[in-house]
Amino acid sequence: MNQNWAAVDLNEVPRITVPPPGPKSQALHGRCTKYFKGLSSQVKLFPVAFESGHGCTLRDVDGNTYIDFSSGIYVTTLGHCHPKVTEAVQKYAGRLMNAHDFTTEIKTLLCEKLAQVLPGDLTGYQFYDCGTAAVEAGMRVMRAGTGKHELLSCFYDFHGKTYGAVSLAEIRSPVYGATRAPGMHLLPRPNPYRPHWTKPDGTIDTDKYIEFYAEYLDRATVNAVAGFVLEPIQGWGGSVMPPDDFFPKLRKLCDQRKVLLMADEVLTSWGRTGKWLCLEHWGVVPDVVSIGKGFGNGFPVTCVAVREPFKEKFEAISASSSYGGNPMACAAALASTEVIEEEGLLEHALHLGELFRKRMLAWEQKFKIVGNTRVKGCLMGVELVKDKATKEPFDEAGKRVYQRAFAKGLAWIPAGHILRMSPPIIMPDDVAHKAMDIIEESIGEVEKELS
Q1: In sequence order, what are the residues at sequence separation of 6 or more whose Cβ sits closer than 8 angstroms to the Cβ of residue 17?
Q2: Which residues share a beta bridge with 303?
Q3: Measuring CA to CA, which residue among 264, 239, 248, 90 is closest to residue 169?
Q4: pLDDT tens digits, one per residue of 175-197
Q5: Greater pLDDT, 347 or 173
Q6: Distance between CA atoms of 332 and 126, rounded to whole angstroms?
Q7: Is the pTM of this model over 0.90?
């Protein structure tokens, strides 16, 4: 792994010289939010204003330096401003910014690289500028490929913010008409920490979920299900990871019922979990997959990949887009892919995952408020509870731990009582340990305050 470009001095990172959010952050934030609305919980809980990023660090306008444990919400997987990605974007920003969906050499090279690294026969591609557009295109491909219209997803999955994508998630807003789009269904999903069905020994019973899905297909649909759309690991839901046998069993059910399987890997793909696709951990190849976030390491580029039998269906769905596949986007995605290969970052992400796993498992024993921890490569979550027996969510603890660690120099992600983490996969071991120290210290302080 080449770390020379993003070397970190642990004496300088993190470095908090002005208690954040500092005066410059507050002033800039006030100016911006006079006009800019609809902020995430990250910003609302800690309204710092960032100035620059380098490798696995961020710098705010007050001169404070943070360890980045968010990757810009799962996006800058290779760290900020990786020189190869930056150079690739700069090259095409000065040569050819957009040519609609006409063929370019850089698009061709990206397609050829995808065919090399993706599993199975995922050989049909279209490119977009955001995850939601990729998910919606994947839905249309499944409908075109099957001649059916119904779609299934699971509780707490998140697939985007357009009407179709929101209809496959929790929808409780009058903005969307307070109803799902026709033919959209949600089902319970196996969460090992909070299972619906268990075996006599108390462990999760995956077979019960599959049996319920089969009965649901028979009783609750109109026998027109095109596909099952799932996040391999739920992001918005709190880094919730399925039992290892879930996706192989779901793949078998889909094949038996002639239902396509779509993996929404916008969040989990391109090295985040130590594989190109997260489903590779379980030996499963989806029929359709959406790829995004880390795909261009910050440049807005996403992809829908489909298996060989369905790639001609792109012709039937008006698949092209104004910005999808532009030369800058393709250059960013190709460079990001090459960096992961050249620097052995899939292996390093798995290595970091084991480092994080050992540290976090110890927290379950050390702290009363840590109910559960989960890790897959550089995608992690910590669930805080008021009582380990009842597993009652502890939202106030989540809020305080998030703010406390951020104030100490760790930029990361809140989700109510669940703390989400997605550090860059280039992170050196010593920086990873220092980040874990900050979180551990913050949990301990908050536990004492709330006990």
Answers
A1: 62, 63, 64
A2: 127, 291
A3: 264
A4: 766 678 999 999 999 999 999 99
A5: 347
A6: 15
A7: yes
225-230 and 150-154 beta bridge pairing: parallel
Tens digit of each residue's pLDDT (9 = 90 or more) over 250-277: 999 999 999 999 999 999 999 999 999 9
Contact (CB, 8 A) for 2 and 344: no
Are 349 and 377 in contact by the 8 Å Cβ rule? The answer is yes
Q: Evaluate the CA torsion angle 241, 242, 243, 248 in order and state its sign.
A: negative
* Inter-residue contact 276 to 118 (CB < 8 Å): yes
* 3-class secondary structure per residue, the chain: CCCHHHCCCCCCCCECCCCCCCHHHHHHHHHHHCCCCCCCHHHHHCCCCEEEEEECEEEECCCCEEEECCHHHHCCCCCECCHHHHHHHHHHHCCCCCECECCCHHHHHHHHHHHHHCCCCEEEEEEECCHHHHHHHHHHHHHHHHCCCEEEEECCCCCCCCHHHHCCCCCCCHHHCCCCCCCEEEECCCCCCCCCCECCCCCECHHHHHHHHHHHHHHCCCCCEEEEEECCCECCCCCECCCCCHHHHHHHHHHHHCCEEEEEECCCCCCCCCCCCHHHHHCCCCCEEEECHHHHCCCCCEEEEEEHHHHHHHHHCCCCCCCCCCHHHHHHHHHHHHHHHHCCHHHHHHHHHHHHHHHHHHHHHHCCCEEEEEEECCEEEEEEECCCCCCCECHHHHHHHHHHHHHCCEECEEECCEEEECCCCCCCHHHHHHHHHHHHHHHHHHHHHHC
Rounded Cα gap, residues 435 and 442, in angstroms = 11
CA dist 195 and 7 (Å) reads 43
**Residues in a beta bridge with 65:** 15, 59
Rounded Cα distance between 420 and 172, Å, is 23
Query: Shortest CA distance to 305 belongs to which of 113, 130, 123?
Result: 123
- The answer to whether 337 and 270 have CB atoms below 8 angstroms apart is yes
| Closest C-alpha to 311, from 132, 106, 115 | 115
Strand 413-415 versus strand 410-411 pairing type: unpaired
Sheet holding 150-154, edge to edge: 122-128, 302-307, 288-291, 260-265, 225-230, 150-154, 184-187
pLDDT in tens, 14-44: 999 999 999 999 999 999 999 999 999 999 9
